[in-house]
Amino acid sequence: MDLEFERKLTIPRETKALYPLTAELAPIVEARAATLRAIFEGRDPRWLLVIGPCSADRADSVLAYLYRLRELQERVREQIFIVPRVFSNKPRTSGDGYMGLVHQPDASARPDPFKGIIAVRSLHLRALRETGFTCADEMLYPENHRYLDDLLAYVTVGARSVEDQQHRLTASGLGIPVGMKNPTHGDLRVMLNAIHAAQGRHSFIYRGWAVHSLGNPLAHAVLRGRQTEEGGTVPNYRYEDLCRLAALYQSVGAQNPAVLIDTNHANSGKDPFRQPEILRDVLESCRRDRAIAKLVKGFFVESYLEDGCQSPGGKVFGQSITDPCLGWEKTERLVFDLAEYR
Fold first, then answer.
1. 94-120 core/surface letters (b: 16 or more CB in 10 A; e: else)
2. Which residue from 245, 262, 263 is spatially nearest to 254, judged by alpha carbons?
3. Annotated domain spans of the chain
4. Which of 16, 29, 82, 265 could hold 224 in an S-S bridge, CB 3.0 to 4.6 Å?
C-alpha cells in the first residue's frame, strides 16, 4: 500500500473523555431527539429547517451565526424546529479544494486531522452549551460518526455517497434521522433503495468490529436536484417531482415516508438567492395536494452571516469559503415566510 502514515489519531472514546457530554447537557440532546422523532412520525406538525453555512469553516463565525439563529428560533418556535447545519466535511467532486473543518481546522494552514477532530467536537459542544442547539452534519466518512454520535441531531448521506454500502449500513444503526440525498445523476430509485437499506436490520463490519443494526425508521429522502452530462443542473422540487416521489414511496412501503427539500445545490443551480423562491414553490405544492403536504417535512437552506462566498483565504467574517450562501437579512425573511405558512 503506497501510503505515508503520519500519526495515529485518537479513538472516539478517548476524544469523548477529553471533551465529554456533561450530565447537564445530555437532557437537551434527548429532548431535541424526541422532537425530531415526533416530526418524522407525524406527531409534531412543525416544519424542520436544517439551515446554516455550506461548510463550518471557523468556530467564531459559526457561533456568531448560531447566536442569531437562537433568537430567531424563539420567534418561530410554534411553527418551525431549527437544526443548524454545522457541516465539518466537504465532499469534493474532483478531489480539489477545501475539504472541511475536520481536515483543516485552519483553512489557511496545512491539513491536520488530529486537531480537526478535536475542533469539530469542541464546536458541536460549544453550540450545545452556548445556544442549546444540537446540530446536523454530513456523514462523509461513516467511521468518523462515533466522534459525534452523542451530540448530533441529524445526519445526511450526500449525493456522492448514497450508493455506498457502508454509508447505508451505518445509517441503519443510527438513532437519529438520516437524510438520504438523491445521487448527482438524479435517479430517485437509488435514493429509495438507500432508504430501504437504512431502515432494515443488518450485520456488518464497522471500525474493526462485527456489529448488528436494528434498522433506522427515520431514514428519509432529500431532494437536491441533479446534474446533466453536459454540466447543467435540473431541479426536482416541483409539484410533478413530489408526486412521483410520493408514488415511489408507496411502491416500496417505507416506514415514516418523508422528504426534505434542499433549496440550494442543483435545485437552485447553486444560486443561493433562489432559495426563498424554491421554498415558496414547494409550499404552493403543499397547499395544492394534501398527500404532498404530509410527505414534505421541511427544508435545507444554505445561509450564513453574509451573502455569497469568498476564497478560503478571504477576510469577510461570516461569509462562506465554499458554495455561496444567503446572508442574514434574507435568511430572516425566508424563515418568517415559512412560519407564516403554518
1. eeeebbbbbbbbebeeeebbeebbbbb
2. 245
3. 12-341
4. 265
- Enumerate the β-bridge partners of residue 213: 202
CATH topology of domain 12-341: TIM Barrel (3.20.20)
Q: Among all chains, which residue has been given the C-alpha cell 483543516? A: 104
Copy the grid coordinates of residue 329. Answer: 437579512
Q: What is the 3-state secondary structure (H, E, C) of 95-128?
A: CCCCCCCCCCCCCCCCCCHHHHHHHHHHHHHHHH
Report the predicted TM-score, pTM, of the whole model to 2 decimal places.
0.96
Residue 326 DSSP code: B
Q: Are 167 and 144 in contact (CB under 8 A)?
A: no
Residue 246 has which C-alpha cell?
A: 410520493
Task: Count CB-CB contacts under 10 A for residue 283.
Answer: 19
List for the chain the helix, strand, coil content (%; round to 5): 40, 15, 45
Q: Which residues does 305 contact at the CB level (< 8 Å), separation at least 6?
A: 61, 64, 65, 68, 317, 318, 319, 327, 328
Q: Where are the beta strands (DSSP E) in the chain?
A: 47-52, 80-84, 136-138, 154-157, 178-181, 202-206, 209-213, 219-223, 226-227, 233-234, 259-262, 296-302
Rounded to an integer, what distance in angstroms lies between the CA atom of residue 11 and that of residue 117?
10
